């Protein structure tokens, strides 16, 4: 019999097993049995070809509608173009080079599964040399058609595949495996299975691959989703329980001190949200256990001010605080902004400093040797109560006297190891405040940050201006782009400043397209756009560029000039996405906006309208009306509600990525669970996990469940969740 630990070489043979390992990282029977279908097609029912994305690897069920053979222009030979459709009116072109013989089998009217990468050529989507499996009309009655047998039923599983291992090969491998597969003992406690109406694990694993009916498939998916949600929630509940019991150092609020003086000198009132969140954080810091809190808030909601007040509370209690920023531009911006906010309170020891204050120090990789030695000395002897820096803070030789609070800004920009390295610089685990301006849907917060307490700042401070956003469809209405340049000139004449954002730096970044693989033009680049603006579109304006590959001192000089009003237009990449605060900037033009994600666009436009004048964000695109990319931009333009946009963003991405696959380089373990659609199930799993851990903290009475959790949420992923 075959178990989950059986190597695939013993089940499928060496050649097939090697292909699955090389292309899909599937090594054991368990890996393959948990490689679930992406979707299910039905013979004769169409797949929506309109939803396909350029550069996406897809498998579609479609019918051959026509074909033509044409000579190639650039070289000898011919090209076969096969038009396939799904019955909805949408079509896709399959191209084959010097393979005219395929015309004999790709006959008009034949249905098949076609797999390949979607490209675009002259406005038409196509598959270049796709792999395909044709479905004969009487396949369900033809026992000899072994390759097609899998697709004879009503529900056709379509698997996540690779070019060398298409979906029908995977289906055949799964069929072979299921003939001898012995499912494991069910790890789910019987009382939970009964209460939640969950089918057994063996039934679920068989029905997910070879569903006997739609209701059976639903029950199988429901059970396997439960396993995923329950494993993650058990891990998070365990982590939170351990964190709550871990020893830390209490940093209570002082009756008189820096925080009291700071609050008294504020030129404006805190918003209600800032006061409420401040009280939550103050209470956490006063406990003898490390705070683990996530602070999320819209762009410009005042998160930095909240973090400064928390840092001052820790300094008042005799500790130090470190603010970790993802880029030098943002770290320098934070340093200057906090210096201005603290005033004399941050200049203790200087002629105009408050003798009862503290010192603020900046630590970045570009510091000169003498400046670095001076900064590190202040960090080591405790003179610097607040330390702002980039990943340079993590290096050996950066030692704190008493690190009491770590504030991580834009946490998604840091890897797990980087965040943990800073925490390790404290004698006892420090308090941790994680900040993000990327709004997080409730289910993502519950699933990824479930071991953190969560605070939300939704109010914008008084005086912030609204931001209007508009899509500029360059192909349909080229005059709109001309008008955008005029609008930028008008804003500059009115005394304001502008950003022009490009998705690429330039300098040969783009990988050239493969032979005979038509592709979209490369994304617009800063180095290419800058001379066009200086010589043509924005001639006469003071323009400079900013991108991540510039030397730190050059970046700093440009940002200082822009902030001082010595520049009219900044042409930049997403290096300005977070933290850049120039209140005089009122207009932003994002070129090739469809090349950015929803959250990125929301972050970027938050750079304008930060003063008293209203802001406008213009989203340039060549995406056609009705395409997914265009709909995404229309959604961004229609609302400034970051939480609504975060749900749209979640729909656009592989949801499993939120568990850190992009950081760990491993497969995501959320294969079926939808963080957007399965909110009720996740809440139920959270409740069951809390009850079970409360009764059995280490799952010692549930060894099979503990092993199942370890398999679904491996140690690296568990550490990611813990450090989130």
From TrEMBL:
Keywords: ATP-binding, DNA damage, DNA repair, DNA-binding, Helicase, Hydrolase, Nucleotide-binding. The keyword DNA-binding applies. Residues 284-457 form the Helicase ATP-binding domain. It comes from the Bacteria. InterPro entries: DEAD/DEAH_box_helicase_dom, Helicase_ATP-bd, Helicase_C-like, NA-bd_OB-fold, P-loop_NTPase, RecG/Mfd, RecG_dom3_C, RecG_wedge. Residues 480-651 form the Helicase C-terminal domain. Gene3D superfamilies: Nucleic acid-binding proteins, P-loop containing nucleotide triphosphate hydrolases. It holds the Pfam family Helicase_C. SUPFAM superfamilies: Nucleic acid-binding proteins (SSF50249), P-loop containing nucleoside triphosphate hydrolases (SSF52540). One of its GO terms (molecular function) is hydrolase activity. Coiled coil: none annotated. This is Probable DNA 3'-5' helicase RecG. The gene is recG.
């Amino acid at each position: 019999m075959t178990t989950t630990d059986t190597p695939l070489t013993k089940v499928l043979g060496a050649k097939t097993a090697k292909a699955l390992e090389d292309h899909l990282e599937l090594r054991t029977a368990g890996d393959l049995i948990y490689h679930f279908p992406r979707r299910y097609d039905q013979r004769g029912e169409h797949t929506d070809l309109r939803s396909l994305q350029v550069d996406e690897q897809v498998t579609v069920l479609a019918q051959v509608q026509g074909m033509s053979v044409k000579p190639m222009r650039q070289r000898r030979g011919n090209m076969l173009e096969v038009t396939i459709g799904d019955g909805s009116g949408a079509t896709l072109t399959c191209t084959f080079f010097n393979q005219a013989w395929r015309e004999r089998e790709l006959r008009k009217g034949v249905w098949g599964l076609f797999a390949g990468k979607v490209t675009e050529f002259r406005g038409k989507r196509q598959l270049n040399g796709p792999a395909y499996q044709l479905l004969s009309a009487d396949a369900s009655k033809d026992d000899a058609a072994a390759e097609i047998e899998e697709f004879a039923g009503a529900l056709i599983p379509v698997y996540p595949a690779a070019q060398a291992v298409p979906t029908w090969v995977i289906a055949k491998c799964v069929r072979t495996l299921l003939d001898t597969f012995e499912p494991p003992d069910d790890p789910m406690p019987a009382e939970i299975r009964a209460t939640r109406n969950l089918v057994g694990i063996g039934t679920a694993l068989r029905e997910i691959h070879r569903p006997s009916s739609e209701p059976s498939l639903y029950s199988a998916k429901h059970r396997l989703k439960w396993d995923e949600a329950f494993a993650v929630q058990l891990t998070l509940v365990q982590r939170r329980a351990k964190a709550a019991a871990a020893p830390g150092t209490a940093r209570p609020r002082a009756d008189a001190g820096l925080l009291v003086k700071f609050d008294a000198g504020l030129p404006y009132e805190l918003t209600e949200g800032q006061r409420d969140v401040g009280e939550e954080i103050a209470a956490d810091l006063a406990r003898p256990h490390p705070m683990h809190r996530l602070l999320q808030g819209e762009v410009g909601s005042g998160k930095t001010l909240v973090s400064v007040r928390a840092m001052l509370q820790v300094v008042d209690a005799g500790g130090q605080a470190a603010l970790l920023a993802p880029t030098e531009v943002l770290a320098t911006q934070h340093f200057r902004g906090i210096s201005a906010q603290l005033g004399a309170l941050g200049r203790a020891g200087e002629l105009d400093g408050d003798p009862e204050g503290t010192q603020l120090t900046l630590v970045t990789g570009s510091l000169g040797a003498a400046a670095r030695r001076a900064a590190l000395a202040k960090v080591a002897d405790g003179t610097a109560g607040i330390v702002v820096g980039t990943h340079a803070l993590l290096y050996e030789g950066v030692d704190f006297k008493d690190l009491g609070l770590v504030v991580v800004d834009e946490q998604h920009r840091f890897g797990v190891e980087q965040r943990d390295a800073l925490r390790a610089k404290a004698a006892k685990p420090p308090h941790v405040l994680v900040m993000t301006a990327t709004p997080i849907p409730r289910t993502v917060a519950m699933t990824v940050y479930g071991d953190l307490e969560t605070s939300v700042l939704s109010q914008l401070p008084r005086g912030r201006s609204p931001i209007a956003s508009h899509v500029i469809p360059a192909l349909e209405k080229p005059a709109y782009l001309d008008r955008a340049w005029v609008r930028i000139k008008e804003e500059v004449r009115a005394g304001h400043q502008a950003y022009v954002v490009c998705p690429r730096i330039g300098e040969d970044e783009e990988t050239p397209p493969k032979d005979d693989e038509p592709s979209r033009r490369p994304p617009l680049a800063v180095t290419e756009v800058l001379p066009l603006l200086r010589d043509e579109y924005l001639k006469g304006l003071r323009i400079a560029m900013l991108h991540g590959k510039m030397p730190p001192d050059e970046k700093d000089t440009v940002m200082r000039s822009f902030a001082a009003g010595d520049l009219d237009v900044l042409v930049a990449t997403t290096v300005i996405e977070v933290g850049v605060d120039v209140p005089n900037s009122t207009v932003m033009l994002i070129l090739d906006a469809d090349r950015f994600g929803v959250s990125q666009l929301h972050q970027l436009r938050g750079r304008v309208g930060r003063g008293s004048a209203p802001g406008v964000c213009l989203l340039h695109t060549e995406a056609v009306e009705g395409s997914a990319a265009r709909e995404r931009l229309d959604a961004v333009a229609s609302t400034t509600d970051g939480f609504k946009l975060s749900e749209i963003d979640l729909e656009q991405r592989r949801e499993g990525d939120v568990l850190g696959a992009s950081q760990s380089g491993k497969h995501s373990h959320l294969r079926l669970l939808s963080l957007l659609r399965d909110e009720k199930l996740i809440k139920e799993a959270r409740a069951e996990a809390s009850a079970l851990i409360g009764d059995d903290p280490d799952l010692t009475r549930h060894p099979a469940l503990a092993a199942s959790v370890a398999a679904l949420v491996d140690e690296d992923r568990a550490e990611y969740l813990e450090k989130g």
